[in-house]
């Protein structure tokens, strides 16, 4: 069963390619544009998926060649589930099943955040762990930690559960939820650089998108996103400065 993480990792770019080709309906960008929100990021931000897919495949290959260790065996099933759920989210979202897509992305986040936290707290690193496990799974978890809230905003707009004309109050509430998750998770990991980098990448793209958006409240949301990015960077810098571990986040 050790090949499953690699197979699951490979499934993500394959499904992404099929989704972009319209195999399941409109591509995810087209679907997103149908439901404009104050928590939408600039299109370039989603290029991070290419890096995430590449690093996750590297993790799957590394996992396949390593000897069996109890902690690694506990991490692998959660990483595999996270990859499968990430792949499943794309066609489900393209088909417009927004509630199911939301549930899938939250489940994927839970799996990969567990991996990132567990790997950040180990006392003795496995050979290659920082580069081939901690880095890819932390980056993936960081992106999903923000993406889950962006997905929530689109779910709300798509179903009209809250006002689409006055989005600012509930959008700021969602951004506050994202802030709480990001800051608390980063605190638990004592400053996880790739986790924070993925989140900051998305928050800056959110600032870029909303700075030019015609929606009411977009400017305020843009500023709030940029402030959150700065707070995350300051927190991560402080946590790294005050911990006595090597820069890749694991104790040798």
Describe the structure in your own words.
Helix content is 73%, strand content 0%. Helix 5 packs antiparallel against helix 6 and helix 7 (168-188) packs parallel to helix 9. The model is unreliable at 246-252 (pLDDT under 50). The chain has one domain. It has helices spanning 4-20, 28-34, 48-65, 70-94, 98-120, 129-159, 168-188, 193-211, 218-241. This is Tryptophan-rich sensory protein. It comes from Lysobacter soli. The chain crosses the membrane at residues 40-62, 74-93, 99-119, 131-156, 168-185, 192-208, 220-241.
Quaternary structure classification: single chain
Terminal Cα separation, in Å?
A: 28 Å
Order of helices and strands: HHHHHHHHH
Helix content: over 70%
Rounded radius of gyration (Å): 18 Å
Please outline the major beta sheet.
Answer: none
Class by SSE composition: mainly alpha
Number of strands: 0
Count up the domains. Answer: 1
Give a short summary of the structure.
By secondary structure, the protein is mostly helical. The chain contains nine helices and no strands.
């Amino acid at each position: 069963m050790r090949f499953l993480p690699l197979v699951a990792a490979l499934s993500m770019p394959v499904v992404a390619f099929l989704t972009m080709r319209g195999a399941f309906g409109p591509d995810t960008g087209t679907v997103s544009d149908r439901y404009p929100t104050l928590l939408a990021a600039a299109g370039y931000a989603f290029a991070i998926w290419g890096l995430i897919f590449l690093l996750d495949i590297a993790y799957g290959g590394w996992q396949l060649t390593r000897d069996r260790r109890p902690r690694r065996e506990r991490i692998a099933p959660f990483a595999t589930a996270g990859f499968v759920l990430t792949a499943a989210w794309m066609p489900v979202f393209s088909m417009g099943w927004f509630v199911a897509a939301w549930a899938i992305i939250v489940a994927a986040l839970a799996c990969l955040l567990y991996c990132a936290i567990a790997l950040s707290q180990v006392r003795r690193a496995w050979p290659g762990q920082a580069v081939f496990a901690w880095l890819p799974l932390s980056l993936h978890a960081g992106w999903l930690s923000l993406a889950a809230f962006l997905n929530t905003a689109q779910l709300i707009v798509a179903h009209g559960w809250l006002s689409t004309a006055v989005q600012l109050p509930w959008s700021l509430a969602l951004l506050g939820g994202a802030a709480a998750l990001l800051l608390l998770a980063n605190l638990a990991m004592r400053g996880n650089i790739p986790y924070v980098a993925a989140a900051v990448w998305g928050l800056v793209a959110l600032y870029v998108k909303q700075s030019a958006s015609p929606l009411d409240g977009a400017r305020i949301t843009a500023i709030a996103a940029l402030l959150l990015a700065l707070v995350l960077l300051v927190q991560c810098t402080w946590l790294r400065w005050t911990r006595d571990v090597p820069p890749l986040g694991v104790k040798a």
